[in-house]
Amino acid sequence: MAPIKRKIIFVDDEPNVLQGLRRMLRSMRAKWDMTFAEGPQAALEILKSMPHDVIVSDMRMPGMDGAQLLREVKTHYPTMVRIILSGQSEQEKILRAIGPTHRYLSKPCDPDVIKLTIESSCNLRESIQDPILLKVISDTETLPSLPGIYQEIMSAMEDETSSLKSIGTILSRDMAMTAKVLHVANSAFYGQHHHVSSAEQAVALLGVDTMRALVLQAHIFSTFDWEKLQKFSIEKIWNHSITSASFARMIAAEETTDQWVIEDSFASGLLHDIGKLVLATNFPSQYEEVLTLAQTENIEDWEAEKTILNTTHMAIGAHLLDLWGLPDSILEALAFHHHPGTVGHHSFTPLTAVHIADTLDKKGELSTDKSKEGTVDFPYLESLGLTERIHQWSAV
Question: What is the pTM of this model?
Answer without folding.
Answer: 0.87
